[in-house]
Batch of 3 targets.
Target 1
Amino acid sequence: MKVLKIIGSILIALVVLAFAAGLFVYLRSEAVLNQRYAAPTPQIRVSSDEQVVARGKHLATAVSVCVECHGQNLGGGVSIDDPALGRIIAPNLTSGKNGLGAQLSDADFARAIRFGVLPDGRSVRVMPSQDYQHLSDADLGALIAYIRSVPPVDSDLPLSEMRPLGRALLAAGKLPIMIASELDMGRDHPQSMEPGVTVEYGRYLGNSAGCTGCHGPGLSGGPIPAAPPDWPPALNLTPSGELAGWSEANFIQALRTGITPDGRQLSDHMPWKAYRNMTDDELKAIWLFVKSAPAREAYTH
Ligand code: HEC
Ligand code: HEC
C-alpha cells in the first residue's frame, strides 16, 4: 500500500500547490486593482450656459462617445462581459438612484475623465482616458456641464467583477485595462481649441474621439487596447493602408453609414453609429488629419 500512500501525498501536494497559486493570483490581482495613483485635481469651470451644455452633449454623443458605454441617457451600462475575463460596468453618471451624479464633485468628474483616476485614487478600468486626456479645459467643462444637465435615471446594474482568467492576466501584467497606469499626469492641456477645417483641429478631434486610441498614435492600426480577445484589430488608416484611394466623400460616407467604398459593412466595434452625428466640418477636419499621417506598415504605431 506504499504506492497508494505516495500517490495520496502527491495529490495532496498538488492540491496545496493549486491553492497557493490561486491565492497568489488573487492577492497579486487585488494589488493591481487597488493600486493608488496621484493625479492633479483639474480646476475646471463648469457653467450651465445653454451653448456650453449643447457642446458637452455633442462631445458625449458624437465625438468622445461616452454614451457608447454609459448609455444614451448616461444611466450606465455593461462595458465588458466576458465569461473568462470578467464584467466591467460603466456606472450611472446621473443623479438618479444608484447614480454617481450626486456624489461626485466637478473636480472628481474632471479627474476621472482626464486622468482615469477615481476619487479614492484607484485607476478606472477600460474607460479610454488616454483619449480624453487630450480634451481642452473648455471641452472637459462642457462635458461635465452636460452630465449635470441630464434628467436623473434610476439604475439597477450588477457590480463589476474580475473572473479567474482576468485576474491571472492582471497578475501577470498582461491585461492593459488599468488606464491610469499608462498616463502622463504632468502633461499640459489647452484651455480651448479653435474649431475649423484644419489638420490641427482634426488631430484634436481624432485624439479626443479615440481614433488614435484604437488605430494607434500613428494610425497604423493593431490590436485595440483593453478590448476583449474576440474584437477585430483596428485597421491601418495611413496612406499605405486600408484607405488608399479614398476621397473625402468616401471617408465621410463610411463614418456616416458604416459602409466602405467597396461595399463592406463596418462592425460596431468601430463606433461609427455615434460618429455619424459629427458635423461635416468635423469629419472634414479629421480627414485632413488622417491624410496628414505618414505612411506606415500596419501595426507599427
Ligand atoms: C469604453 C467604455 C467607456 C467610455 C467610452 C467612457 N467610459 Fe466612463 N467609465 C467606464 C467604466 C467601465 C467605468 C468604471 C471604471 C471602473 O469601475 O473601474 C467608468 C467610469 C467613469 C467615471 C468615474 C465614476 C466613479 O466611479 O467615480 C466617470 C466620471 C466617467 N466614467 C465619465 C465618462 C465620460 C464623461 C465619458 C466620455 C467623455 C466616458 N466616461 C466614456 C467606461 C467608459
Ligand atoms: C473602439 C475602437 C475604435 C475607435 C475609437 C475608432 N475605430 Fe475605426 N475601426 C475600428 C475597428 C475595429 C475597425 C475595423 C472594423 C471592421 O473590420 O469592421 C475600424 C475601421 C475603420 C475604418 C474603415 C477602414 C476600412 O477600410 O475598413 C475607418 C475609415 C476608421 N476605422 C476610421 C476611424 C476614425 C476616423 C476614428 C475616429 C473618429 C475611428 N476609426 C475610431 C476601431 C475603432
Note: The pocket of heme C (ligand 2) is lined by residues 206, 209-211, 213-215, 224, 232, 234-235, 237, 242-243, 254, 260, 264, 266-267, 269-271, 275, 286, 290 (CB under 6 Å).
Target 2
Amino acid sequence: MRKTLRTSVVMALCCITVTAYAYTTEQAEKGKQIFAKQCAECHGAGGEGGVVPDEYSDYAGMKVPPVVGKGYLPHMKTAGNVYAFIKSHMPLQAPGSLSSEDALNVVAFDLMANGVKADGQALTAESAKKIMLHGK
Ligand code: HEC
C-alpha cells in the first residue's frame, strides 16, 4: 500500500515536470485585452474566425482562420509557431507592431482560450516552442 502511494507520487511529479510549459494567468489576462482591441475585429470576439471587414479596404473579404475552438490555428504546430507568426505578420494591417511581450501575452491568452491550463510559469519565446498544439 505504502509503496504504491509513493510510486504514484513519484509518477505525478515526473508528469508535472514534463508538462511544465505553459503561461501565467497574468499573461493570459493581458493577452485577452490585446486580443479584444487588436485582433477580435477580424478573428471574431471568441476567436472563431471569419472574414476581414470592409474598413480594412486592402484586405477586405479575406478569410480569417479561427484561433480558438473548432479548427483553431490550422497552420500552426507549436505555440512557438504562433508567437513567430504574430510577431512578423499580425495584426494584418500593422505587422510587427506588437512588442515581444505583448505577442507572448496574446499567445498565452490563446492557449487559455483553447483549454491549456496556466501553470504559473511565464511563457517565453523558448518555452513556446515546446508547447505542441492539436494534441500532437
Ligand atoms: C485586419 C484583419 C486581421 C487582424 C486585425 C488580425 N488578423 Fe490574424 N489573420 C488575419 C488573416 C486574413 C489571416 C490569414 C492570413 C493568411 O492566410 O496568410 C490571419 C492569420 C492569423 C494567424 C495564423 C493562424 C493559422 O494557423 O493560420 C494567427 C495566429 C493570427 N492571425 C493572430 C492574430 C493576432 C494575435 C492578432 C491581433 C494582434 C491578429 N491576428 C489580428 C486577419 C487579421
Note: The domain at 22-128 is CATH 1.10.760.10 (Cytochrome Bc1 Complex; Chain D, domain 2).
Target 3
Amino acid sequence: MSLIERDNHSGYTTTGHEWNGIKELNTPIPRIVLICLAGTFLFAVTYWYLMPSWPLGDRFYPGKLGIDQRTTLAEQTREADKLKRSWIQSVEAADFEAIYFDNALMAAVNDSGARLFEDNCSMCHGRLGVGNLSYPSLADESWLWGDDPTVIYETLRVGINSEHPESRNAIMPAFGQMGVLDAGTIDDVVTYVRTEARLPVLRTRDASKRLKAGQATYKLACSGCHGTDLKGNQSIGTPNLVDRYWLYGSDKDSVFESIWSGRQGHMPSWEARLEPYERKLLAVYTTTLD
Ligand code: HEC
Ligand code: HEC
C-alpha cells in the first residue's frame, strides 16, 4: 500500500507513479475546460432541438424553429424576381431617349446588355462587337442601316435576309454570275470604285479610259443602290463604298468577287428568341460600343 504523498512545492498530492524519480501530480481538470465541455454539449443538444437534424428513415427531424434553407432560397428568388420585374417594366415602358438618361437603366444595359451580347451576338460580331470578315463591326461609325437604337431594335426584331416574313432585305446582285456584266466591265468598275475609295490601283496605259468606262457602268448599274456619291443608302441597307470600312474586303479580288458573285449576309431575327426588353437593352448596348 502506498502512502498518500503531497508535493511540497505545489501542494497537490501525487498519483503515486514514479518514472526515473519523476512523480506525477494529481491535478484536477481545469474548471474552464469543464465549463467549455458542458457549454458545447448544451449547444449541441439545443441546436439539434431547434434546427433540422436527425434523419428518421425517409424523413428528418425538422427542428423546433422550422428553418428550411429550401424555403429561404425560394423566398430570396421570389424577392430577386420581383426586383427584376420592376426594372424590366421600367425598360419596357421607357423610350430610348429616357433609357440613356436613366442611370439605373443604363446600369442594366451595361450589365445585362453586355451579357446578352456575349451570349447571342459575339459569335458573329466578335467580342465587343468589333466584327469579322462578312460580319459587320458594330463598334465603328460605319452603319449599313444606321446607328439609331430604334433602327437597331427593328433589325433585331426582323433580321436581315432572314426567315422572318418582314425581314430587312439587302442583296448585292451577282452581276457576273447572272451574266449582266462581263469580267472586263467588272474590272473597270472595280478600278473606279477603288479609285474613289482612295485605294491604290494599278496605273495602266489605258487607265483613264477604263476609269471612265467604270464610272459609266457604276452610274448605270450601281448608283441606284449605292448612291451617286458611292456613300451607300441606309434606308435600304447598302454599304458606303468610299469609307475605310469593308464588309467583304477592299482588295481588288474581294471587290471583284462582291460584284461577280454578289453578297447576301444573314442576320437572324431575334423576335422569337429574345424578349422585347432584352432586344431593347441590346439595341442601346450596341450603340454604346466603340
Ligand atoms: C449568325 C451570325 C449573326 C448573329 C448571331 C448576329 N448577327 Fe447581327 N448581323 C449579322 C450579319 C451577317 C449582318 C450584316 C447583314 C448584311 O450583310 O446586310 C448583321 C447585321 C447587324 C446589324 C446591322 C448593322 C448595321 O451596320 O446597320 C446589327 C445592329 C446587328 N447585326 C446586331 C446584332 C445583335 C445585337 C446580335 C445579337 C442579338 C446579332 N447581331 C447577332 C450576323 C449575325
Ligand atoms: C439592288 C441594290 C444594289 C445594286 C444595284 C448594287 N449593289 Fe452593291 N451591294 C448592295 C448591298 C445590299 C450590299 C451589301 C450586301 C450585304 O450586306 O451582305 C452591297 C455590297 C457591295 C459591295 C461590298 C461592300 C463591302 O463593304 O465589302 C461592293 C464592293 C458593291 N456592293 C459594289 C457594287 C457595284 C460596283 C455595283 C454595280 C455594278 C453594285 N454594288 C450594285 C446592293 C446593291
Note: Residues 144, 170-173, 175, 189, 193, 221-222, 224-226, 237-239, 241, 246-248, 255, 258-259, 263-265 surround heme C (ligand 2) (CB under 6 Å).
